[in-house]
Amino acid sequence: MPASTPSRWLTLAAFGVIYFVWGSTFLAIRISVHEIPPLLCAAIRFLIAGAALYLFMLLRGQPSPTRRQWLGAVAMAALIFLGDYGLLFWAEQRVPSGVAAVMLATIPAFMALSEVVILRTQRLTLRLALALLIGLAGVAALVSHSLNLGGAPIDRTGAVALLIAAFDWSVASALSRKLPLPDSKAMSAGAQMLTGGVLLTLGAASLGEFRYFHPLAVTPGAWLALLYLIIAGSIIGFTAYLWLLHHHSPTRVGTYAYVNPLVAVLIGYFFAGEPLGLRTILGTALILISVLVITTMRSRKPAPTLPVEEPA
């Protein structure tokens, strides 16, 4: 019916944003961090996006977080932004953008491990153990020097940084159920992005990134990539994500976790000349199979309150 057409098109547009825009942000990060110091680059992104979202929610009548909620937001931001995004931006100086997206797809595996080992809310079943082993095999295919898969393995230091980033996200996801945070997801995300931007700025200053950052030396392409991350990746992407969560099931919305790495790998290959050999294809396939098995196992449980917005 005509009345349903706008909703249908809006749904397609919103899914297109979280599938393709979020998938493309990994390449935008790689472009920007080659000219802007990584922590400072992430700080600029989230200070602006966080301030915009926070002020927008205030104008819509949402109350500002309480002191306890701000402290909760700081704790989350330390893990998500300083830990996860800080390491992601740093690692993309050494690792292709598509592979970085694939490595971050291991987040559900770390979440499952934390539920088994730390929270003890899930048993280590045969199916879960096999899924974790498949994911581990995917990581090994990407980093191993001994496997003859053609093409060079990815930088091990960058790979370790990305695995730590995925682990930080999984810990933050578990803590988000217990820390005091605003009831409004948008206000919570704005507060976390804003405080995360402050922490990243402090991190950039402590590493001396301001000393060798010369804004006039940055090319327009790098500034455009950062602008794309702020507007398309954070502001538009998160708005689409919230709209979809309000109108569709979390399981359906969560399919972006499977699509983003594929989009990132293909965009990196076609637009940045990143390698797409047997090693990358095999590693990507194994990790995504692991993610699919783990997330379908977890689908019957209440979905965790994800700390912020997109995975890149």
Characterization of the model:
The protein has about 300 residues and is mainly alpha-helical. The chain has twelve helices and no strands. Helix 1 (about 5-35) runs antiparallel to helix 9 (about 220-245). The longest helix has 29 residues, at about 5-35. The radius of gyration is 19 Å and the shape is globular. It starts with a helix and ends in a 14-residue tail after the last helix. Residues about 1-5 and about 300-305 have low confidence and may be disordered.
Summarize the structure.
The protein has 312 residues and is mostly helical. It has helices at residues 5-33, 38-59, 67-91, 97-104, 107-117, 126-143, 156-175, 185-206, 220-247, 250-253, 256-272, 278-298.
Tally of DSSP β-strands? 0
Q: What is the approximate shape?
A: globular
Query: Which percent band covers the strand fraction?
Result: under 5%
Could you report the average pLDDT, rounded to the nearest whole number? Answer: 89
Low-confidence regions: 1-6, 299-306
Number of domains: 1
N- to C-terminal separation?
37 Å
Share of helix, binned: over 70%
How many helices? The count is 12
Secondary structure class reads mainly alpha
Largest sheet: none
Order of helices and strands: HHHHHHHHHHHH
- Rg over CA atoms: 19 Å
Show the helix and strand layout.
Blueprint: H1 5-33, H2 38-59, H3 67-91, H4 97-104, H5 107-117, H6 126-143, H7 156-175, H8 185-206, H9 220-247, H10 250-253, H11 256-272, H12 278-298
Helix pairs in contact: 1-4, 1-9, 1-11, 2-3, 2-8, 2-9, 3-7, 3-8, 4-11, 5-7, 5-12, 6-12, 11-12
